[in-house]
């Protein structure tokens, strides 16, 4: 019987592990559990939210990328580590059990939600394709409604947008969406463009502290030159349908609070019988879970020792690490099948790129500070290179070329009309089961519900 390898998550980490294992473990039966049939290229989400890219341009088809991996369309909601079974909620809603000999966990992260009154109800995320699409429609709808409102207070409230978080996700989201709202506002006769206000609220004293003071300041200059308010050293203490309250006492009338203040590892990690570090699953430098050599974890969901930095550091949750860790993970899974020694993950970070929309960006490739047009060139070239799928690269390049001439697409698509917009609804954070619940749920499933073709 061939060995059964199950990969959970089809993002940067999981899809690459499966793709590499197809070659490295030719006799193994590989299954990839993922709720979506695409790999989402998250760094492009702010451009999707702003209408500079269509949603389909930010994804790579898994069925096209993977040749013999069987896709299991669903979400892993629990794992019975002792019985080596993954409990999956299929996209049909039915539970399924997927047994494994080797398990690779790469379910990524979700938006980090803090205990702030109103945040769960009124905070909007930008972590999934659905959230980006929702955000775009929501922002465009605010301007449309403001244009027809006779109430000046309502007009002002709908035209103010608050982004919480001055990391790369928040900065890119604010920078790109502000460009779009400035285009749209000029088309509406009853909206004074000066009424459209964007705020970036950042708890730290600088933007994107990981990129250093100089690039943080360059970013701030670009944002402020577009009229975006950058509020540093300030947090949000409450939010409701009408107002965001800041820690300095200000009350900003707004219908839109975009919450990008960090990520939390997938809740699945905290539901296993295994140690976690700040929610990330603890693994060794060989990416295996201590006590469970048959289970490996990587990407945003795992606390992978950062041997290049040393001193007990763990790797930052970046796409760069996730993709590099995939190489080591696939090699180690394949090695374990043939009794070969495994290797340690070691990678020195190559830097970050941050798209600020238009011809503006900041980047730090190999430790060199870049801003303006050179950074924009590096940023776009890096994204195209990192997508590594010719059809996806062509789609993004064509959309950028069109966007440079036409500007962003500013139509509301309306697919998500009726969605609550709540983080938990879009990111399914309430779906997970603890080990006891997982065992009970697995025991309750009739044998016939295991996925077709899974050798039990
Ligand atoms: C707006 C934004 C911009 C970013 N920009 C950059 C950047 O410029 N550079 C950079 O290096 N990093 C960037 N990042 C971070 C980067 O995207 C992540 O570090 C990277 O995606 C992590 O890869 P991953 O495979 O661990 O997780 P993901 O890419 O998030 O993939 C997780 C996968 O698991 C699936 N999944 C989730 N839960 C389950 C489950 N229970 N069962 C099965 N499947 C599941 C998801 O659907 C997804 O397919 C950005 C992030 C955001 C949000």
Architecture blueprint of SSEs:
Layout lengths: L3 E5 L3 H13 L4 E6 L3 E3 L4 H5 L9 E3 H4 L4 E11 L4 E6 L4 E5 L2 E4 L3 E3 L7 H4 E2 L4 H20 L3 H7 L1 E5 L3 H20 L9 E6 L10 H13 L3 E4 L3 E4 L3 E4 L4 E3 L2 E4 L3 E3 L10 E2 L2 E3 L5 E2 L2 E6 L4 E2 L15 H20 L14 E3 L5 E3 L6 E2 H16 L2 H17 L16 H5 L7 H9 L13
Parallel strand pairs: 1-2, 1-8, 2-5, 8-22, 10-17, 11-12, 11-17, 12-13, 20-23
Antiparallel strand pairs: 3-4, 5-6, 6-7, 9-18, 14-15, 15-16, 19-20, 21-22, 24-25, 25-26
Helix pairs in contact: 1-9, 5-6, 5-7
GO molecular function: NADH dehydrogenase activity
InterPro entries: FAD/NAD-bd_sf (IPR036188), FAD/NAD-binding_dom (IPR023753), NDH-2 (IPR045024)
Protein name: NADH dehydrogenase
What does this entry show, briefly?
By secondary structure, the chain is α/β, with parallel strands linked by helices. 34% of the residues lie in helices and 23% in strands. It folds into two domains: 4-111 and 264-348 and 425-448, FAD/NAD(P)-binding domain (3-Layer(bba) Sandwich), CATH 3.50.50; 113-261, FAD/NAD(P)-binding domain, CATH 3.50.50.100.
Strand count: 26
Gross morphology is globular
Q: From the 3D structure, determine the CATH topology of the largest domain.
A: FAD/NAD(P)-binding domain
CATH homologous superfamily assignment of the largest domain: FAD/NAD(P)-binding domain
How much of the polypeptide forms β-strand, as a percent range?
15-25%
Domain count: the total is: 2
Average pLDDT value? 94
Strand order of the largest sheet: 7-6-5-2-1-8-22-21
Largest sheet: 8 strands, mixed
- Structural class by SSE content: alpha/beta
First CA to last CA: what distance?
A: 11 Å
Bound molecules: flavin-adenine dinucleotide
Number of helices: 13
